[in-house]
């Protein structure tokens, strides 16, 4: 980009997944302003990005004048996804959690310096009224856009996290795809952006060692095992995939993310068969089934080694914040594609 340094406005910033993606893309970008309403997310954000102008604000309180003064040329954002998720009520634009996003669509025509937008959301957004309102606003402001449904699996990262992405730029059209198609792979014209970054198996993403009392914090309690053993998605260290970790991980058993068999020397099928026969949970205990730690989930999501939580962030909050965040590698690739 040379002289024209990217000035990013990071909206719905959470724990800064977008900020890390911009760093990873290494395109000389600076986050000039970052906004989120959630105080525990903001604490984590500020703990890691001490230099960034991060504000605890409702996005509905932002106006064009204030934004224009910062001269941002890039908006990165992950608006709240509950209005569109499969489990939600699908109230779509009627949902009060959409009002800040609708506010942004009103502000957009008055933003004089914005040339690029990258947006992340859940699968389901692509068929929502909100999506139609968004793309209509983009077009009327002179933006070209492309939409994607992508998972880190396509970069050989052993974790599923299928998400909706939209990239948009002003003035020039994209050299690939069309505005009526949703792409499910990265465009293949650039090998730099399609090359896998993943380590294939889970092992390299896992904690190298555990003190016993540390391990005890993450082991599935006997009670939980007895009740939910059928529905847990148990993974081995050598496995090449894991389920998407959501904000309810370790809180609800069903569909919130995989658990790990900590001891790889025991046979999973043998121990489960024995447990099914006599109902003695001691068989399962030998497997040391445990939750992935927040650090391990952060590793799978592409957060750098220097990312950390403030000590006072509870375990439950760490899982919740990571579950709301995004895969840094996927976003970083999209950012490069957008700037190509
Ligand atoms: N991309 C972020 C996570 C986004 S989740 C990350 O990497 O962590 C959506 C975020 O939107 C949440 O953190 C939530 O607190 C925030 N949010 C929702 N409504 C908001 C509003 N009206 N104003 C500011 N932030 C809001």
Would you write up a description of this structure?
This protein has 340 residues and is α/β, with parallel strands linked by helices. It is built from 13 helices and eleven strands. The chain has helices at 17-25, 39-48, 64-69, 99-107, 129-140, 191-194, 212-218, 222-228, 268-278, 282-285, 294-300, 315-324, 328-339, and strands spanning 6-11, 29-36, 54-56, 74-77, 116-122, 143-150, 163-170, 182-183, 234-235, 259-261, 289-291. The chain has an eight-stranded mixed β-sheet, sandwiched between helices. Strands 9-10-11 form a three-stranded mixed β-sheet, with no helix packed on it. β1, α1 (17-25) and β2 (29-36) form a beta-alpha-beta unit. The longest helix is centred in the middle third of the chain and has 12 residues, at 129-140. S-adenosyl-L-homocysteine binds at residues 12-18, 35-38, 41, 58-60, 78, 80, 100, 324-326.
Properties at a glance:
binds S-adenosyl-L-homocysteine; 340 residues; alpha/beta; 3-stranded mixed β-sheet; 13 helices; 16% strand; 8-stranded mixed β-sheet
Secondary-structure topology with pairs:
Blueprint (H helix, E strand, L loop, with lengths): L5 E6 L5 H9 L3 E8 L2 H10 L5 E3 L7 H6 L4 E4 L21 H9 L8 E7 L6 H12 L2 E8 L12 E8 L11 E2 L7 H4 L17 H7 L3 H7 L5 E2 L23 E3 L6 H11 L3 H4 L3 E3 L2 H7 L14 H10 L3 H12 L1
Parallel strand pairs: 1-2, 1-4, 2-3, 4-5, 6-8, 9-10
Antiparallel strand pairs: 5-7, 6-7, 10-11
Helix pairs in contact: 1-13
The structure holds S-adenosyl-L-homocysteine.
S-adenosyl-L-homocysteine binds next to helix 1 and strand 2.
Write a short abstract of this structure.
The chain has 340 residues and is α/β, with parallel strands linked by helices. It has 13 helices and eleven strands.
């Amino acid at each position: 980009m040379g002289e024209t340094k990217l000035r990013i406005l990071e909206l719905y910033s959470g724990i800064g997944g977008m900020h890390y993606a911009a760093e990873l893309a290494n395109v000389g970008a600076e986050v000039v302003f970052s906004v989120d309403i959630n105080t525990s997310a903001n604490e984590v954000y500020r703990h890691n990005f001490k230099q960034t102008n991060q504000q605890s604000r409702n996005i509905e309180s932002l106006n064009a004048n204030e934004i224009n003064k910062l001269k941002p040329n890039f908006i990165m954002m992950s608006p709240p996804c509950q209005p569109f998720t499969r489990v939600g009520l699908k109230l779509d634009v009627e949902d009060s959690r959409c009002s800040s996003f609708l506010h942004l669509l009103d502000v957009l025509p008055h933003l004089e310096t914005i040339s690029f937008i990258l947006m992340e959301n859940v699968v389901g957004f692509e068929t929502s009224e909100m999506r139609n309102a968004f793309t209509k606003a983009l077009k009327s402001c002179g933006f070209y856009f492309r939409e994607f449904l992508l998972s880190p699996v396509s970069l050989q990262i052993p974790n599923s996290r299928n998400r909706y992405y939209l990239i948009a730029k002003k003035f020039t059209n994209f050299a690939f795809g069309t505005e009526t198609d949703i792409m499910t792979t990265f465009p293949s014209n650039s090998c730099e952006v399609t090359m896998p970054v993943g380590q294939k198996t889970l092992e390299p993403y896992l904690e190298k060692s555990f003190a016993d009392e540390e391990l005890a914090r993450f082991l599935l309690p006997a009670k939980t095992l007895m009740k939910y053993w059928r529905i847990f998605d148990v993974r081995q260290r050598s496995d090449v995939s894991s389920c998407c970790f959501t904000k309810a991980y370790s809180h609800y058993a069903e569909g919130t993310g995989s658990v790990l068999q900590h001891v790889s020397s025991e046979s999973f099928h043998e121990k489960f068969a024995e447990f099914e026969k006599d109902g003695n949970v001691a068989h399962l205990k030998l497997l040391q089934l445990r939750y992935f730690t927040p650090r391990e989930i952060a590793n799978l999501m592409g957060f750098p080694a220097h990312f950390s939580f403030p000590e006072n962030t509870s375990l439950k909050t760490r899982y919740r914040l990571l579950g709301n965040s995004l895969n840094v590698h996927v976003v970083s690739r999209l950012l490069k594609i957008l700037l190509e």
